[in-house]
Design brief:
There is one protein chain. This protein is 29% helix and 30% strand. The protein is of the alpha/beta class and 479 residues long. The termini are far apart.
């Protein structure tokens, strides 16, 4: 009878015991691209979540800068975003490819002014540059150890997608094999996160190679996911660019006693629409107002007669500006160099130009044959994420390989009136210094800078034209 009573008590005690539960809450954004006017709304979201979850972590998956001249042409380039991220209370960011846009010394200065960590395990800077990167960091959230490692994408030349001159003194290693060296974080942390500026497809591939990760907070491809996606039991999140949305991530953990490790029992993510928040944070609103006080950028250059709604329409405008202002035969602008895809009818301002072409690239002119030009276009496509560039002075029929659409099977270049393009004739070609540097197809003339920025060519073109209509303009025919 006594044994039966003891067993009954033990069963009651066991049934009454409940596992301890904790939650880690994360607010994440990616590819903010200096969307200054959205930062007050982001501050409201962060403050609201922090009221509910005091241990809230705030992360960025890179490309915080490049997109608004008020930020990128500040006396300290990109400082406004850093100041606003400091005020909002970011904990960490990884490097996006555009973090390098002001070169190594510009990056070093921004990091020194930041109150948050820059995490990137596959970028290594010379000590003399004073670029204070960390490969990883552990955050303590009410006794739960959250380990975060960061990584930045590499393009076809083994560097991130920015001008090659921006990497002097910095070397890079492949993402997956470098992140794999941090598997030791699994034993030392309860939650392990990859802060990734590598793109959605790359993140999915990484999830299959590195199963010890719990979460990948992604960026670079501006892929809008519905909350998050589970791949190989790893939660992957990412949003479109320019702070239209951010993600609230919840990781729930349990353990039966203090002597046992935490185990993750739930991972979920939900999108938050930033545009639906008013932005009541007075301090952040005042900061944005202060950084925006520059009437130079609001100067009207021309009138757009009909709304523009595609990247190519704006790309055609840019390329036309290049050839008109330099007297060239052909203009080229890489796909990634056109930074937005719509503009309403009406005023086109200096700010609109600098948001469209924010990189400060020089205009480069070269004399090359039709064949060299054709090869250059193909090289630009390969080295710009397999996206064909925009052009002026010619049209292009692009036939893709049906079994592998990323590969251009056939390229036919024609004159604007549809005539056959002369592959032996020499043409004066104008492009930006980024295109000139990444296009590694052989050519007799590497080109020379004309000591003008491509944005200046566009500004001058718009002022000369006065009124423009680019609706429906199309010079690249993809098949």
């Amino acid at each position: 009878m006594k044994k039966l009573f003891t067993l009954f008590v033990a069963v009651l005690l066991t049934a009454g015991a409940r596992a301890e539960r904790k939650e880690v809450h994360i607010l994440s954004g990616n590819d903010m691209h200096a969307k200054l006017e959205a930062m007050p709304a982001l501050a409201d979201i962060a403050d609201s979540l922090r009221t509910l979850y005091p241990g809230l972590l705030v992360f960025s998956a890179g490309d915080n800068r490049t997109g608004d001249p008020l930020n990128d042409m500040n006396e300290i380039p990109a400082y406004p975003m850093v100041a606003l991220m400091n005020q909002i209370g970011f904990n960490a960011t990884t490097l996006g490819n555009h973090e390098f846009d002001s070169g190594p010394h510009g990056l070093a200065r921004l990091i020194a002014l930041s109150n948050f960590s820059y995490l990137c395990c596959n970028a290594f800077a010379d000590d003399s540059l004073n670029i204070h990167l960390r490969p990883c960091k552990t955050f303590d959230v009410e006794g739960v150890r959250v380990g975060v490692v960061g990584a930045v994408q590499l393009g076809t030349h083994g560097t991130p997608d920015s001008h090659p001159d921006n990497f002097h003194g910095i070397r890079f290693t492949p993402v997956d094999e470098t992140v794999a060296q941090y598997e030791w974080m699994r034993k030392q942390n309860d939650v392990v996160i990859l802060l990734s500026h590598n793109g959605y497809e790359s993140d999915v591939a990484t999830s299959a190679k590195l199963p010890w990760l719990d979460l990948i907070i992604g960026g670079h491809t501006h892929t809008q996911l519905n909350g998050g996606e589970m791949h190989n039991n790893i939660l992957i999140t990412q949003n479109v660019n320019k702070l239209k949305k951010v993600t609230h991530i919840t990781v729930a953990l349990e353990r039966d006693s203090d002597s046992e490790p935490w185990r993750i029992v739930e991972k979920k993510a939900e999108n938050i629409d930033v545009t639906k928040h008013q932005g009541r944070s007075k301090v952040v609103k005042d900061m944005v107002r202060f950084f925006s006080d520059n009437p130079t950028f609001q100067r009207v250059l021309a009138q757009i007669e009909k709304p523009l709604s595609t990247y190519e329409e704006l790309g055609c405008l840019m390329c036309d500006a290049f050839i008109k202002e330099t007297g060239s035969d052909v203009g080229i602008e890489n796909y990634g160099g056109v930074r937005y895809d719509e503009h309403p009818a009406g005023d086109f301002t200096v700010s609109d130009v600098l948001r469209l072409d924010p990189f400060g690239n020089d205009a480069v002119v070269m004399e090359i044959t039709g064949k060299e030009l054709r090869d250059m276009l193909l090289s630009c496509c390969v080295n710009d994420d397999d996206q064909f560039p925009y052009v002026s002075g010619i049209t292009c029929d692009v036939e893709r390989d049906k079994s592998n659409p990323r590969v251009v099977k056939k390229l036919t270049v024609k004159t604007l009136d549809g005539k056959k393009f002369d592959l032996k004739k020499k043409y004066k070609v104008v492009t930006n210094s980024y295109v000139a540097s990444i296009c590694d197809a052989p050519r007799s003339d590497q080109g020379h800078s004309i000591n003008k920025k491509t944005a200046d060519l566009i500004i001058s073109f718009l002022e000369h034209e006065g009124r423009l209509d680019y609706q429906g303009k199309k010079r690249i025919m993809e098949h």
